[in-house]
Amino acid sequence: MSSRPSVRQLLERDIFPVLPRSLRDLLIVLDDAILHRLEEIRLRVERPVMIVVGGEDAFLGPEGLSCSPHKVYRLTKEELDRVVQLLTKGSLYALEEELRNGYITLPGGHRVGLVGQAVMENGRLRTIKHIAGINLRLSRQVIGAADRVLPFLIEEKEVCQTLIISPPVCGKTTLLRDLARQLSWGVPSLGLPGRQVAIADERSEIAGCYRGIPQLDVGPRTDVLDGCPKAEGMMILLRSMSPQVLITDEIGRPEDGAALAEAANCGVTVIATAHGRNLEELHRRPLMAALLAEGHFRRVVVLSRRQGVGTVEQIISL
Predict the structure, then answer these.
(1) Which of 273, 200, 271 has its CA nearest to residue 241?
(2) Beta strands per DSSP E along the chain
(3) What is the pLDDT of residue 3?
(4) Residue 56, CA distances (Å) to 67, 244, 306, 308 in order
(5) Cα–Cα distance measured from residue 313 to residue 33, given in angstroms and rounded to the nearest whole number
(6) Which of 38, 136, 180, 313 is the most exposed, fewest CB within 10 Å of its CB?
């Protein structure tokens, strides 16, 4: 297997082609140590260009990074319009379906969020026009992210139903992705053969699909249904792909709970994530409390950023 590209290589391959040269020049001179921790590039018309590094904001300028919004690079309307042209290849209409979710996905699995003026149709978002802000979120795979928790999720050579919880941007999806990869390949050290894995990837974050093809390594036995509402996606995967393990991200709606219950009734192992700081917080939400009370999860993994992204605070056996 070829070595994974560095963040600088990811930027040059996937991100720089959609940025004007003025922005590329500001990013390319940043130290590798900064780029290694780069998470987001935020562009707003007539406001300072901001990047998120290791969870902290910094403004970008000709002299490097600054904590102050003064003497930094401010994006012009023409520059942002150019980014939109490059992102959409000149046709917002062609990406109208993706824009209903408020973002589009680039090759490499990088997500691009967009804000501006919403265009509504029959009470639903149809598209976004007059785009005034863009958030480029870098998608990076952390091979081995699941190494620490995986031994606790295996019982009698079977994978336990697992819920991963944390506040936003604490590594839930990264952990979920590596669990999919390792379970799909199999884990000989734990006596676990490869499993047929299915991913209901509503927001294109787990597998980073581009035109339906996973851009990230989710394993050789993994099928991905991309961009479909997770509850419907889980039911389609159950009917069509006969998974042994079903994976999805950020459950929280009643229909999600019904789909999880159906999967459990079919004997399929479910691994999912949800927002929350701890188990007690989940018990205060009726849907999550019901799923936990009904025994749909046997393990709960709690993550935080206390010692960096992906800090494992607890692994709870239910």
Answers:
(1) 200
(2) 38-44, 50-53, 56-61, 64-66, 103-105, 111-121, 124-137, 154-155, 158-159, 162-166, 197-201, 222-226, 245-248, 269-275, 299-304, 311-317
(3) 56
(4) 10, 39, 14, 12
(5) 26
(6) 313
Looking at the DSSP bridge assignments, the partners of residue 270 are 246
Nearest-angstrom CA–CA distance, 65 and 72: 8
User: Using CA atoms, how far apart are residues 112 and 105, in angstroms rounded to an integer?
Assistant: 6
Q: How many CB atoms lie within 10 A of CB 92?
A: 18
Q: What are the phi and psi torsion angles at 295 (to 5°)?
A: 80, 25
Residue pLDDT, tens place only, 226-274: 989 999 999 999 999 999 999 999 998 999 999 999 998 899 999 999 9
Q: Which long-range contacts (CB under 8 A, 24 or more apart) does 232-236 make?
A: 232/259, 233/200, 233/201, 233/202, 234/200, 234/259, 234/260, 234/262, 234/263, 235/259, 235/262
Identify the burial level of 179 via C-beta atoms within 10 angstroms of its C-beta, where 0-12 means exposed, 13-18 middle and 19 or more buried. buried
Triad 103, 262, 179: Cα angle to 5°: 55
Identity of the residue numbered 166: S
Residue 32: how many other CB atoms lie within 10 Å: 10
Short-list 113, 277, 129, 121, CA closest to 204 = 113
Enumerate the H helices of the chain as residue ranges: 7-10, 21-28, 32-36, 77-88, 96-99, 172-185, 230-240, 254-265, 279-283, 286-293
DSSP code of residue 185: H
DSSP symbol at 12: I
Q: Tell whether the torsion through CA atoms of 49, 8, 310 and 231 is positive or negative.
A: positive
- At 248 the three-state DSSP class reads strand
